[in-house]
Amino acid sequence: GSTIGILGGGQLGRMLAVAAAQLGYRTHVLAPDAESVAAQTASSFTRADYHSRIVLDEFAAIADVVTYEFENIALDPIVYLAAKVPVHPAPAALGVAQDRAEEKTFVAELGGRTAPWAKIESLEDLRTALADIGTPAILKTLRLGYDGKGQVRIHDAAETEAAWEAIGQRPAILEGFVPFSHEFSILLVRRGDGAMVSYPPPWNQHEDGILARSTLPAPAEIASQWGEAAALAGRIADRLGYVGVLACEFFAGRDGPVFNEMAPRVHNSGHWTIEGAVTSQFENHIRAICGLPLGDTGLTAPSVAMENLIGEAANGWEAILADPGAHLHLYGKEVRPGRKMGHVTRLGRG
Ligand code: ATP
Ligand code: MG
Ligand code: MG
């Protein structure tokens, strides 16, 4: 059988390895971290720095196809690997998703709505942009943010200097705060031949910038914007010649869906699909990168709710297991505050 190479050792890599095994593939995980939860389920594992050419050459020799589970992975090794072995999604998609300014420019060119934004190189830029965009606004690092890390909210112009100091990384990006009723995501799956499917959109609720829960079916405010958002996500995927699962986050705004950001990978807001959809996002990602037919994305129950177990709040697991309808997933990570430790999915009757 063939071997799927997975870059990154987190829970997404682990869930991809489980899905791959079910379809009869071997997986080989390459991750630098001492603690890798993907190592527990992959067929084989290399713990090494993926910037090393020797390590990458070995990885490319083992893998028939390569994918990754983290969008903040360095682009260079991905480009290097792509010359030796098929890599999905392609480096171009990763490059766009790694830079918030590039991402917003790209999406606007395809007719998508975004928050008003400006690239910020200096305190002076920030003052000018704030005068233009107004408050409230959010200053974000241009690159490498996740789970709301690398963001400072600015409620008043008096906070300008403190925000600039706090953000640290340059350049940064200032975004106007989008007034929204709900947040949701479009998860689509595309194959190399252009075949595409997408999941019904979950309503995503965040707490402190981290996804707290995803619920389906989505309320009317989201359902009415689903078509426009899914069409935009489809144009993004087509333009990038995308292969695999693509996640696009949206705000349900007053005038329609506002694109927030994309992730070129399987996504936390799609964890509900393991039990709540006919085919999980992980299986569909494996199917897409292996050129297999894509699976049904329909719901398996009238309603589905996925809740993240975060940091120290993630105790009481026995109580969750006592609920016969709860599907508990624990990632086997060491507890740290604010860390995603696991999730629980419940299917409902109505
Ligand atoms: P992720 O873990 O999803 O990659 P991230 O660190 O890249 O997160 P964002 O998705 O940009 O961060 O922001 C995290 C959350 O902060 C959003 O889901 C949303 O709730 C809020 N947020 C971010 N930008 C804006 C904005 N311009 N207007 C309103 N809310 C925002
Ligand atoms: Mg992000
Ligand atoms: Mg986000």
UniProtKB/TrEMBL annotation:
Pathway(s) of this molecule: Purine metabolism; IMP biosynthesis via de novo pathway; 5-amino-1-(5-phospho-D-ribosyl)imidazole-4-carboxylate from 5-amino-1-(5-phospho-D-ribosyl)imidazole (N5-CAIR route): step 1/2
Superkingdom to which the source organism belongs: Bacteria
EC category name: ligase
Pfam families linked to this entry: ATP-grasp, PurK_C, RS_preATP-grasp-like
UniProt entry keywords in alphabetical sequence: ATP-binding, Ligase, Nucleotide-binding, Purine biosynthesis
Positions of ATP binding: 100, 140, 145-151, 175-178, 183, 206, 260-261
Domain ATP-grasp intervals: 104-290
GO molecular function: 5-(carboxyamino)imidazole ribonucleotide synthase activity
The EC number(s) this enzyme carries: 6.3.4.18
Reactions catalysed according to its record: 5-amino-1-(5-phospho-beta-D-ribosyl)imidazole + hydrogencarbonate + ATP = 5-carboxyamino-1-(5-phospho-D-ribosyl)imidazole + ADP + phosphate + 2 H(+)
Quaternary structure, from the entry: Homodimer.
Function: Catalyzes the ATP-dependent conversion of 5-aminoimidazole ribonucleotide (AIR) and HCO(3)(-) to N5-carboxyaminoimidazole ribonucleotide (N5-CAIR). Catalyzes the ATP-dependent conversion of 5-aminoimidazole ribonucleotide (AIR) and HCO(3)- to N5-carboxyaminoimidazole ribonucleotide (N5-CAIR).
Protein family per UniProt: Belongs to the PurK/PurT family.
Protein name: N5-carboxyaminoimidazole ribonucleotide synthase
